[in-house]
Amino acid sequence: MVKGYVHPEYWSVANAFKKQLKNIKGGAAICVYHKGKPVVDIWGGVKDLQGNPWEEDTLAMCYSTTKGVTATMIHILADRGLINYDALVSEYWPEFGQNGKSQITVRHLLGHEAGLYNLRGVIDDFDATQDWKYMANRLAESQPSHSPGRSSGYHALTYGWLLGEIIERVTHKPFSEVVYEELVQPLNLDGFYIGAPKDQLHRVSNITDATTIMAVKKLEEWTSKQAVIIPKRFPLSLRRLTNSLLTKNIDKLIAMEPEHLQSSIPAANGLFTARSLAKVYATLAEGGAIDNVRLLSEERIESVTRVHNRKLDRVVPVPFFWRMGYHSVPSSSGFIPKAFGHFGFGGSGGWADPSRNLAMAMTLTDSLINPMSQARSFLMSSAVSRAVS
User: Fold this and answer.
1) Which of 9, 18, 170, 291 is deepest in the core (most CB within 10 A)?
2) How does DSSP classify residue 122?
3) Each residue of 290-319: pLDDT tens digit?
4) What's the confidence (pLDDT) of residue 328?
5) Which are the catalytic amino acids?
6) How far apart are the first and last CA of the chain?
7) Distance between CA 155 and CA 188 in Å, rounded?
């Protein structure tokens, strides 16, 4: 049922994973690094509706987990002096500084404090996201919902293009190429894409059935038609959340249609193996270097992982305890004190704890209507944390 490697001192993690796997409709993988070495690297379950087994190289759509990777890219470039967090975004992207956005800084974007979370105000069809230039132009023309720095509002999808365009401007390269050059190649990652090549799509896990896809489509249609009265019936945050997520044809992303897997959507369509995602976070847990490869300075990691916002979010009304692109790490026994990372819709996620040289990533494909899927990484985070206490 479960394949892979487990160091003898971490059997408790493997046992916890086996229990979770019994209740997952699809499959999953988990990888744990401790003191710079992989101590757990296991997988199991099925990868598709046909029942094909989850393999060592299976890729999972990790949704918002992708945001943590995008933020890491910003930090790598900042370490080289190419990006200043307190610089105006318009210094790198001149067209951006219009319609009330002239005072927005890179720091505001990283902390979800720019007020640019309203995807429906930018596009009316998710198919538009296949055109990077169009998305950048539309975001440059958009208006923020509030002044920068006033509060955080989770930028569910716009986050990726906002930061991704800065990355493209300072490197003069496509976003997916920068990911390859700065992360995949130096760390020798075996499966790590934000915009996957066509010849890698056969590795992608997908158990989304027609019923789920139709449910998402109906939800988008209903919230679009009822947008005017939603604030009267529900909290205002729900209106903001639906506007940030549910645009026409968003069901195509849930269905994992090939064109949306091959486009770069740096807030939502990362296709990762747990092994690759864990190694990125292990690098952060080790002070920015692993296997004689340095991605970031120790000083950079210390500065960008300090909590700078403890307030309730305007879109998802919980405190994220935002760092610079990372949130605090919830577990079934509370937040892990020194850990930071990012989780995504459906339960995948990754995190690092430099105080214990510990990192974990879990990738999974479960039924999107299973309310427990989001909690699985939290439960596994607890198991991993306890294993090294």
Assistant:
1) 170
2) T
3) 999 999 999 999 999 888 888 888 787 777
4) 92
5) 64
6) 28
7) 30
